[in-house]
Write a structure and sequence with these properties.
Radius of gyration: 30 Å
Shape: elongated
Number of strands: 36
Helix content: under 10%
Oligomer: single chain
């Protein structure tokens, strides 16, 4: 009896195995069924949300006989590789060829094409990659002043044509809402949510009324909140950010209350507690010009306006540090006795901090260059600038990240100061146009296309008679010597007050 039961069980098991193999012709070839070959499909596809996606495979039979499309059923379906519910199947079409308006949200997908023989139930599959994005996924964020109201535009990089396409008023057009207040700043940073640790490609838009915090991870513009909600202390009405400096998971913000604070999500440190104080207590009034080293460990040089001194924030410290000097007889960073005009960190080969300082009595300008050695500042140069140089009257400053030249604009003219050879020259004259911004973009991505963008000087201008429609953004290639070359020009903006790059 026992042997009979075992034999019967083996018979049932064998039948089940044979039946399973009979259906799985995606992996095995059987002589009784003519195999379907799926050709003319790429390994990976790029699709855009809300835009038509077409794929037209070529179907053949292995024995070379004619393929009769009516004898088969078809299904296109996908799985979101990045979603927490990655096992949920999304059917896109049941037609032989894929021709749909893509309803998938931006992400990375496994796309399957399955063909089934209606009579036998045999099926064959083809799996490919599908990256879904939006038409405004990568590009320049441009904050405009339109009659003292903010408008956010974008020059979106088109991966197919490799050009930048303009999109105007993207929060209203794509998200259905309007930014309130006079524009101050736009800033992009890739970080993560504090509570969930989910990736968050965040766009901050500051006005004099509030700072919008837009979660742009899936390239949509309707998920936004008030930056106040990310600050762990009570804040007043019209609270907003004045300046961000970010390296990804690490960010500093100087806000409308004059408070400098820091966020580091992996270390569970959020904006709120004031950093502009010493361990001995007491608030310090600091300049909005911050020297952020932007290295693996955070290191920030700030300027104490009242005491006229440099101070440092580094690592996990909860207060600022008074630096020492490598040459205290000639360089006293804790007692400069001058006012700060401009400061920046300069990521040239010999990475340095630049500071333009004005003597309150003589009005002469000094350019101080120094590097850091932990809490010690090492002087690299202290030069009195020629009074004929118009740098003291500059509207905007930035430093060339390749050569270390100071770029500054006065009225409609852009000048270049070479601190190593003490040479100042007129670089660009915009004639009757008003310069509203000059800037080198700060981009985290280190691939070739982004590295090239970081070397371009962005010059924004407008016509005083038509400030709402005459805005122009131009990209210049600045060489070591010679005339700057205009590489790209984009029009149709208002008065551009701030730019950032959404990577």
């Amino acid at each position: 009896m026992k042997s009979t039961i075992i034999g019967f069980s083996l018979l049932i098991f064998t039948i089940c195995i044979l039946n399973s193999c009979r259906k799985d012709l995606g992996n095995y070839d059987y002589s009784e069924q003519n195999h379907v070959l799926i050709e003319n499909m790429e390994d990976n596809y790029l699709g855009f949300s809300g835009v038509e996606l077409k794929i037209k495979p070529v179907l053949k039979l292995r024995d070379g006989s004619s393929f009769d499309a009516d004898k088969y059923s078809y299904e296109w379906f996908s799985y979101d590789s990045l979603a927490s519910n990655a096992d949920i199947k999304k059917v896109l079409s049941t037609d032989k060829d894929l021709d749909v308006m893509l309803s998938l949200v931006p992400s990375k997908y496994a796309l399957f094409y399955q063909i089934t023989d209606k009579e036998t139930g045999y099926h064959w599959q083809k799996k490919v990659g599908l990256r879904v994005t939006t038409e405004i996924a990568d590009g320049w964020l441009i904050l405009n002043d339109i009659n003292n109201e903010a408008r956010l535009d974008m020059l979106a990089f088109n991966a197919k044509t490799t050009v930048y396409d303009p999109y105007f008023d993207i929060t209203k057009a794509s998200g259905g809402w309007k930014i309130e207040g006079k524009p101050l700043m736009v800033h992009y940073v890739r970080n993560s949510e504090f509570l969930t640790a989910k990736p968050s490609a965040r766009v901050y838009v500051s006005t004099d009324k509030l700072t919008y915090s837009i979660n742009n991870q899936i390239y949509t513009w309707n998920k936004y909140s008030n930056f106040k909600e990310e600050v762990m202390r009570p804040t007043p009405t019209n609270y907003h950010a004045v300046k961000f400096s970010s390296t990804g998971s690490e960010s500093y913000v100087l806000d409308s209350e004059g408070i400098l604070s820091r966020e580091n999500i992996p270390q569970a440190t959020l904006y709120g507690p004031s950093l502009n104080r010493l361990n001995t207590g007491g608030m310090i009034d600091i300049s909005p010009f911050l020297g952020d080293k932007r290295e693996s460990q955070n290191y920030l040089v700030v300027f104490d306006i009242k005491a006229k001194r440099f101070l440092i924030h580094k690592g996990l410290n909860q207060a600022l540090i008074i630096p020492s000097s490598s040459t205290p007889d000639t360089f006293k960073p804790d007692n400069l006795q001058k006012d700060l005009v401009y400061m920046a960190y300069v990521p040239i080969t010999n990475k340095q901090f630049y500071a333009l300082l004005r003597d309150p009595v003589t009005k002469k300008l000094n350019l101080i260059r120094f590097i850091d050695n932990d809490t010690e500042l090492v002087l690299q140069g202290d030069d009195v600038l020629d009074s004929s140089i118009p740098i003291d009257n500059a509207d905007f400053y930035d430093v060339d990240p390749t050569y270390g030249y100071i770029m500054y604009s006065v009225g409609s003219k852009i000048y270049q100061y070479d601190p190593f050879n003490k040479v100042n020259k007129l670089l660009i004259d915009k004639g009757n146009k008003i310069i509203s911004l000059i800037k080198y973009p700060n981009i985290f991505n280190r691939s070739n296309r982004y590295l090239e963008l970081q070397k371009k000087l962005v010059v924004c201008t407008y016509d005083a008679g038509q400030p709402t429609t005459s805005g122009k953004m131009e990209l210049y290639e600045i060489s070591l010597s010679g005339v700057p070359q205009l590489e790209k020009s984009y029009e149709g903006f208002g008065k551009i007050v701030s730019i950032s790059y959404r990577e």
